[in-house]
């Protein structure tokens, strides 16, 4: 194969082939079932029916390259933190919300062979009931006492019957745990820096991929990169919402968290990403640190972003042994021991990778920012 | 807290504290159950009983920092390849060897609520039986047609009842797929470069961690970095073994692969890492490319390393549609379609991350190169 490079009338480069070789043919749709037509722009929900072929679609390949850039940018920016592996298989059902997947060998003969008298058959393999991890946080905290600041980028799983375009059954989180953190402001400023710097790398390195996505999914503003982001206590946010309750349709309930609509209103009202801090203790998990001046509050923070709402959730971790002991769920005695044998104040957070790619690209449905999406009834047609 | 930095009599720096603050106490073992004694070197199998605490042990933290360096080195060296996510949940039981874990929601009410008449109860959630991935390869191949050279670093799972110090139920693989590859030598030279360059980065950046490991687990030679590595066809290797069958105890069988002992002999005999290429078709998976000059062989390669044996396995992929069609397992029609709709010759491989860390560090048991190891009966004592 040979040819010359020339400039086309529209100013773009093109190749004038003198000869070429066909490595592999792809006859059109009618003849052999190829689902896509050249030069036709297929909508995402049609393309999604063919997960094994959709990386050949220009805007899907652009989304997947932006995923790549995001993940490598995170690794390259946080070179002073140690990357840790957290397990997918775990005997901890975490917050016990019944949203876990359980796991066992697909081999009854093996289970029988391995069975010990004290265990039920389905627990033969590990000698415990085993679940897919819903978060690497607790294990990551254990690592942070040996490694200092540490992070993981790991799949996580939720067995919810949720049809929302913002949820997946298998998704990915960047999770970080940091030592010598005893003030929420250390966490929020770290997260603000993380999101801004990562976005700057992506904007600089993959501008063509972003332009292609914005052409397909609608324009985006990244003016939040140049702003200082707003922090609101949960109480302050509730007051703002109370004063503007005619602006949204969902009902504002005391101490029950905010609806997606209310979150979006706060972001719009503040004209900035918003850190919601100092949450009511009763709606947050057991490991969050009691606020020093109000035992009904915990030092938690959620980051709300334009377009996607909650992107990050985190907190200081309860390091008072007695307080933690009074709240620890059964089976997590090992986590309590982390505070028993020496340590330092820690804090951390999780950022949803898919949610972040939606923020970058404008992709409406989270199923289209991951190559092989897993969601309820999601394999009814596909074997991929 | 304040103090001055000084040089100790042995030449090492030390801090002379003038005052200090105790953030958190850790009384000794007898008093409150801390399992480790300062300045005593506990053996790995004792330390392994406390996975949530063992990152506090110096040599374990060194192993985990070496893991971090390995993974970030891979991301930084292969910047021209695109990082892809491959799914953990999959309806494909891959090679159908019955070594898979099956997955379902731990919530029978949810399964009943979601059940469709055509599906059994345990398949209600996804409408298919779902397994944990044993390899990301097939999905990664699908991505390579859209993204070009692509790789993933992902957990993989095997439900084997295997007590070997070289196997885990949950482990990690670096897997890569490359386009326009039609010669095994392209793959072997890529793998040789990958292993050498990654190791050079680790040796340069984490020499103290390596020294600590080698002091604990025994010295290692890395003289293979400066050698050109040997390639042997399966037939050549079988002949060498036949000529030296008095040097090992396992029996040499025709076309059934080699034992660990035989692999180690080949490495020793060649005084080099060994690529075993051109394998008998019948002992390799369906997706490997038939050799052009012998239809009973496939263009496969295994890399055997000193100390650990097989580190990498890979092949050219069968891109002849008719040959692949004759071998494709049921349920993998989507994989066959990758060859139907245009493409290019591809090849790829997988490298076991834990095996590689064993190669670097000399850690004998693979359970000690991963923070929270998962293996048969491995949770009998631990809830971590």
UniProtKB/TrEMBL annotation, chains A, B:
Originating species: Megaselia scalaris
UniProt GO molecular function: asparagine-tRNA ligase activity; ATP binding
Ubl conjugation recorded as keyword: no
InterPro entries the record matches: Aa-tRNA-synt_II, aa-tRNA-synth_II, aa-tRNA-synth_II/BPL/LPL, Asp/Asn-tRNA-synth_IIb
Domain Aminoacyl-transfer RNA synthetases class-II family profile: 151-371
UniProt record, GO biological process: asparaginyl-tRNA aminoacylation
Bilayer-spanning residue ranges: none
An annotated GO cellular component: mitochondrion
The protein, known as: Aminoacyl-transfer RNA synthetases class-II family profile domain-containing protein
Keywords, alphabetical: Aminoacyl-tRNA synthetase, ATP-binding, Ligase, Nucleotide-binding, Protein biosynthesis
Stored SUPFAM superfamilies: Class II aaRS and biotin synthetases
């Amino acid at each position: 194969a040979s040819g010359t490079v020339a400039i086309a009338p529209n100013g773009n480069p093109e190749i004038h082939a003198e000869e070429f070789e066909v490595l592999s043919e792809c006859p059109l749709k009618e003849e052999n079932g190829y689902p896509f037509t050249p030069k036709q722009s297929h909508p995402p929900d049609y393309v999604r029916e063919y997960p094994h072929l959709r990386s050949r679609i220009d805007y899907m390949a652009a989304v997947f390259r932006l995923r790549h850039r995001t993940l490598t940018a995170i690794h390259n920016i946080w070179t002073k933190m140690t990357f840790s592996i957290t397990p997918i298989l775990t005997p901890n059902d975490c917050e016990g919300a019944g949203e876990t997947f359980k796991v066992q060998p697909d081999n009854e003969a093996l289970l029988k062979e391995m069975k010990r008298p004290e265990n039920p058959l389905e627990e033969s393999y590990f000698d415990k009931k085993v679940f897919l991890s819903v978060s690497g946080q607790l294990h990551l905290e254990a690592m942070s006492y040996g490694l200092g600041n540490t992070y993981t980028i790991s799949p996580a799983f939720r067995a919810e019957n949720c049809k929302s375009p913002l949820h997946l059954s298998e998704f990915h989180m960047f999770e970080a745990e940091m030592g010598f953190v005893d003030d929420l402001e250390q966490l929020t400023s770290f997260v603000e820096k993380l999101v801004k710097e990562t976005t700057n790398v992506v904007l600089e390195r993959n501008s063509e991929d972003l332009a292609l996505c914005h052409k397909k999914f609608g324009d985006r503003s990244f003016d939040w990169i140049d702003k200082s982001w707003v922090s609101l206590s949960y109480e302050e946010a509730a007051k703002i919402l109370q004063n503007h309750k005619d602006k949204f349709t969902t009902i504002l309930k005391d101490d029950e968290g905010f609806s997606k609509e209310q979150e979006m209103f706060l972001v719009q009202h503040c004209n900035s990403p918003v850190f919601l801090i100092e949450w009511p203790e009763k709606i947050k998990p057991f490991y969050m640190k009691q606020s020093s001046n109000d035992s009904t509050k915990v030092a938690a923070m959620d980051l709300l972003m334009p377009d996607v709402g909650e992107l990050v959730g985190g907190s200081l971790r309860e390091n008072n042994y007695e307080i933690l002991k009074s709240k620890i769920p059964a089976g997590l005695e090992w986590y309590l021991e982390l505070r028993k044998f020496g340590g330092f104040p820690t804090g951390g957070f999780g950022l949803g990778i898919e949610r972040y790619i939606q923020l970058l690209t404008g992709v409406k449905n989270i199923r289209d920012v991951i190559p092989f999406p897993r969601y309820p009834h999601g394999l009814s047609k596909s074997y991929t």
